Amino acid sequence: MSETTPSYLRAMLGSQTNLYAGLGSLATAALLSIPFGFGIGAIPLIVFAAGELIAAMYVPALPTFRQQVDRRHRAATRDAARTSLLAEIEGRTKRRGAFPQNLQTYLRLAERVTSLYRHAEARPGQLSTSDVERLDDASIEYLCMWLALLTMDERGSAINMYDIEERITALDREAKTPAPGTDLRQLQKARADYLAILERHRRMGSRKRALEAAMLSMPDQVEEIYQTIMTTPATEDGGIKLEDALAKLRLQEDIEAELAGDLAEAVPGIVSPLSQASPRPRRLTAVAGRQTT
After folding, report:
1. What pLDDT is stored for residue 292 in this prediction?
2. By the 8 A CB rule, do 289 and 256 touch?
3. Positive or negative CA dihedral for 17, 53, 6, 269?
4. With contact defined as beta carbons under 8 Å apart, do 288 and 252 qualify?
5. Are 120 and 127 in contact (CB under 8 A)?
6. Distance from CA of residue 91 to its chain's centroid?
7. Percent of the chain with pLDDT strictly greater than 90
8. Which residues pair with 250 in a beta bridge?
9. How far is CA 192 from the centre of its chain?
10. pTM for the whole thing?
């Protein structure tokens, strides 16, 4: 999943450890100032300020610290994506019977991901948290596909294919026997515009069928991944099996790009991980089994 680079300095300054250290220094200064005055009482604050300057020079550059900050930032980005996507989906779902079913499927995906996070914490040598994050990204893409299908249904219902074809036929008849003063260039332009509408509609239909297939297959694939990891003995490395399974959970790059464009156009301002450039070397998808880097 994609995200912007967080501020490591701000993360250090706002960390609980740093806040507790600041409050502790303030409390110590208050206690010392009672018997010894403000001069002695200011020493803890000066020490804290000096420590902050030194820490600001080194801590934000530590690889372990950056990994922790990046992990928290990715988790916050996914949470924001879930919230906005689910809210948009619920507002657009007209067939109320389909919403609980798809929502139950998504919650099942989220439950499996949560279980794998706990599994990775319990057995870090067998399964890494970063591997599970890639599967977590897939659950967000499930919501993206769901919302994209809803927007496609809305766009499709606004287009009467038969009416457009009838208009093209009428334009062809008028172009063959034009009345005096008819602007043939304008007729050809109108015909080209109608043909472009039909082409976009048919192309959208092809994308819709691909997304429907991906959305149906993803829960079964995630369940297979979950069962594979959970049944792997503790002495074996689950990352290899997860890598092989994730290779089948991929969406073609061209479909993913069009999906991101559709969401950005239909829902301006939506929090979607597909609408940003992804920094990770591999990208989760759900149609083709081939890998891209």
Report:
1. 39
2. no
3. positive
4. yes
5. yes
6. 19
7. 0
8. 288
9. 37
10. 0.64
**What is the total residue count of the chain?**
293
pLDDT at 277: 40
Find the mean pLDDT for residues 247-270: 64
- The encoded tokens of residue 92 equal 């657009």
Spatial neighbors of 218 by CB under 8 A, at least 6 apart, are 109, 138, 142, 145, 249, 286
Residue 179 CA, distance from chain mean position: 56
Model pLDDT, residue 134 = 82
Q: Count Cβ atoms below 10 Å from residue 12 Cβ, excluding itself.
A: 19
Of 110 and 11, which is predicted with more confidence? 110
C-alpha 93/C-alpha 85 separation (Å) is 12
pLDDT (0 to 100) of residue 266: 63
Helix axis angle for 63-92 and 129-157, nearest 10°, is 30
Nearest to 103 by CA among 142, 152, 151: 142
Is-contact 41 30, C-beta < 8 A? yes
H helix intervals, 231-280: 238-246, 253-266
Per-residue pLDDT, averaged over 257-268, amounts to 66
Show the DSSP H helices in 125-246 as ranges.
129-157, 161-176, 184-230, 238-246
Is the pLDDT at 168 greater than 60? The verdict is: yes
Please give the pLDDT value at position 286.
37
